[in-house]
Amino acid sequence: MRSPALRHVLTHLITPLLMCIGMGLAYMGAFVTPEPHHLPVAVVGSGAEAKTFAQTVKDRAGDKLDVRTVPDRATAVGLLKSRDLTGAYLPDAKSPELIVATASSDMGALAVEKVFTPVAAGQGLPLKVTDVATPVDDDPSGQGLFFLMIAVSIGSYASVAVLGAAGGALPMRVRALLTVGVCAVVSGIGALLAGPVFHLAHHDLAGVWAMAWLYSAGILFIGVGLHTFLKRWTTLAMMVLFVMLNFTSSGGLFRPELQNGFFGGLHAFWNGAGFVEGLRGLLYFGNEGLARSVWTLVAWLAAGLALTAVAARHERSTQTAAVEPTAAQHTVEDVEEEVEEAVGV
User: Fold this and answer.
1) Backbone CA torsion sign across 122, 108, 106, 25
2) pLDDT digits (tens, 9 = 90+) for 260-277
3) How wide is the angle at C-alpha 343 spanned by C-alphas 341 and 345, nearest 5°?
């Protein structure tokens, strides 16, 4: 191609076009057709009649539901609050009841309500729905934590472009210190949004900040480490890791049981899921499952620190007597291009 300017433009168009394809595949694949897949529900009762009823529900639903029986209502409520169940149905000749926990998943609660409402209607009875864990009034759908994750994510991965491109001439130890500071600022903004601004967190705001810091630090250190090797392609890698795969598997909109096996599987160990589920445990379920979520975020941070250490070693090993790139050589245009590419969800 004879024109360097045209080649430059066409080369830079590759990233947004790949983002378009990736975002379409990820978001539409994860969110367009949510259907239950082994959604965990229970029928309350210990007699033969309850077991027969549970088997009948299972036979009709197929792979959409995993149906079990529990001996009493208290056991069912405990399993809902530990998020081992999405719904529990109490058969009754006069007033059948469905117990849900919408703070865990509003969409999951709606899904089980759609399953059991026709069952009660078949008996000519109205279905009583009891919610044992509701979101705060300021976040009635319970999806505010998902959008908080998006805000913290954008602040984190967009900062990678600045730390990597504009800060590329700085020693890695300086970039690492800057990264720690950026994490503190981004997580502080997240805590302000969750607390005083939108009132998603009515308690444990310090815990929300700490979770946001862990989450942000994992993203930033992975990004800073990757930038040493990928340069301007870091933006695309970060979008794949922390938008396309992360937002879709977080469980913020649909629990993994309402998604296909790929995104449902990622939910078990991806950092966005750790952040969202950890905040749910902290704010709504008495810290149930919080430790596991924290360890998930710690593991991602450890991976980021390890990658940054490898990058630092690589940079030292490639230093020669030749003139190293200076801050002036990392042009304003380079930084602006990376930042502009980084902001896309």
Assistant:
1) negative
2) 889 999 999 999 999 999
3) 115
Return the residue matching tokens 């930038």.
227
Q: How many other CB atoms are there within 10 angstroms of residue 260's CB atom? A: 14
| Whether residue 329 has pLDDT greater than 50 | no
Quick: pLDDT tens for 56-70. Answer: 888 888 888 999 999
Burial tier of 153 (Cβ tally within 10 Å: 0-12, 13-18, 19+) = buried
**Read out DSSP for 302-339?**
HHHHHHHHHHHHHHHHT--SSPPPPGGGS-HHHHHHHH
- Please tell me the distance from the alpha carbon of residue 47 to that of residue 149, in angstroms, as a whole number: 44
Give the span between the Cα atoms of 302 and 224, in whole angstroms. Answer: 13
Angle, helices 271-284 vs 290-317, to 10°: value is 150
Global pTM exceeds 0.70: yes
Confidence of residue 119 (pLDDT cuts 50, 70, 90): confident
- Whether residue 120 contacts residue 126, with contact meaning beta carbons closer than 8 Å, is answered with yes
pLDDT at 167: 76
Instruction: Output 331-334 pairs: Cβ under 8 A, ≥24 positions apart.
Output: 334/165, 334/232
